[in-house]
Design goal:
The chain has a five-stranded mixed beta sheet, covered by helices on one side. The chain is built from three helices and five strands. It has one domain (5-117): Translation Initiation Factor IF3, CATH 3.30.110. By secondary structure, it is α/β, with parallel strands linked by helices. The chain is elongated and about 45 Å long.
Length: 118
């Protein structure tokens, strides 16, 4: 696992904010806040609170990636879930328009693209 990725999930909200702040306090220049499904809104909130309240706007959003992932759940069913990756960086503008890159990790979509290219 990359030490500069914070995976947002069901733990208490401030755990993630504290982790983001500590990573930058320890010298990280860039960090990714990653979440999927129902935790996407929490990842956005963690990013906003960490950068604006605790890091005093010294860190900003560098990039945002949204997409989806496919995986098998415990029942063996293939499930697709939305993801977000918010890249934070020192010196990035804290209030700017950020281009969003959309990607998908779907094997089906990759096969369709290969067929279209052929």
């Amino acid at each position: 696992m990359n030490p500069h990725i914070v995976y947002v999930g069901p733990k208490p909200f401030m755990n993630y904010v504290t982790t983001v702040v500590m990573q930058f306090s320890r010298g990280a220049n860039e960090l990714i806040v990653r979440a999927r499904g129902k935790f996407i809104a929490r990842a956005v909130d963690v990013t906003e609170i960490a950068t604006k309240r605790f890091l005093n706007r010294s860190v900003g959003v560098k990039n945002i990636v949204v997409g989806s992932e496919e995986f098998r759940n415990p029942d063996g069913k293939t499930v697709r879930v939305s993801i977000i990756e918010i890249t934070l960086a020192r010196g990035a503008p804290s209030s700017a328009v950020i281009p969003i890159r959309v990607e998908s990790t779907s094997a089906h979509e990759a096969a369709v693209q290969e067929e279209q290219a052929a």
